[in-house]
Amino acid sequence: MKLSNLALTAAAGLSLEASAATVQGFDISNHQATVDFKAAYNDGARFVMIKATEGTGFTDKVFSSHYQGATNAGMIRGGYHFALPDGASGAEQAKYFLAHGGGWSNDGITLPGMLDIEYNPYGDTCYGLSAEAMVAWISDFVNEYQKATGVYPMIYSTADWWKTCTGNAGGFGNICPLVLAAYSSSPPSTIPGDWATYTIWQNSDSYAHGGDSDIFNGSYEQLQKIAKAA
């Protein structure tokens, strides 16, 4: 079993608060059909998260070209899955993600896959699930991903959604790096669940080279260590 989030945090030298050292990144999907990754790199971006899948019936048509473009530009990159918990089980969606770009390899340039679980764009905020059922669904996804890859996925959410739809559940802070969406000019002070801090902060829904702006909570060397799960 690979290191937990807190173990990764310690190994990478991250503090349990917002770090003074940060790394610019961003996340994208098919809504950004073309991205100039080299220009983003030249402007300081060093990592990117790319949408791969949604539910069990959608694969992002530009995932492969985005992934290759990021690789060619010298970026650390990874895929993400938009969760639809009112559909297939967590394990089934993890398998679908893994089969369509969501895998991980210990090459130093691939971040663990990211589970994007947040407000439902198609209906009920919590997808019709109770807090207990939602936590079980997330656990199902997380455990299936870890079983297949040897590393735990990152979890993307907001503090408000996590409180509303999971009851502010703990149990993930020691295993899954947190990608926290909180649009502001200063680092978020409200950390959900039992996470000690965030690993990545999505600080804006508008990035100069497309998609959303993401800030890694640490140095580039620390980001490399998380990519290697070392």
Structural features, described:
It is a single chain. Helices cover 30% and strands 19% of the residues. By secondary structure, it is an alpha/beta fold. The protein has one domain: TIM Barrel (Alpha-Beta Barrel), CATH 3.20.20. Helix 1 (5-12) crosses helix 7 (220-228).
**Domains counted in the coordinates: how many?**
1
- Helices and strands, in N-to-C order? HEHEEHEHEHEHEEEH
The CATH topology label is TIM Barrel
Distance between the termini: 12 Å
What percentage of the residues does DSSP assign to strands (E)? 15-25%
Mean pLDDT: 92
Strand order of the largest sheet: 1-2-4-5-6-7-8-9
- From the alpha-carbon coordinates, what is the Rg to the nearest angstrom? 16 Å
From the spread of the alpha carbons, the general shape counts as: globular
> Poorly predicted ranges (pLDDT <50, ≥5 residues)?
1-7, 9-16
* Number of separate helices: 7
Portion of residues within helices: 25-40%
CATH architecture verdict: Alpha-Beta Barrel
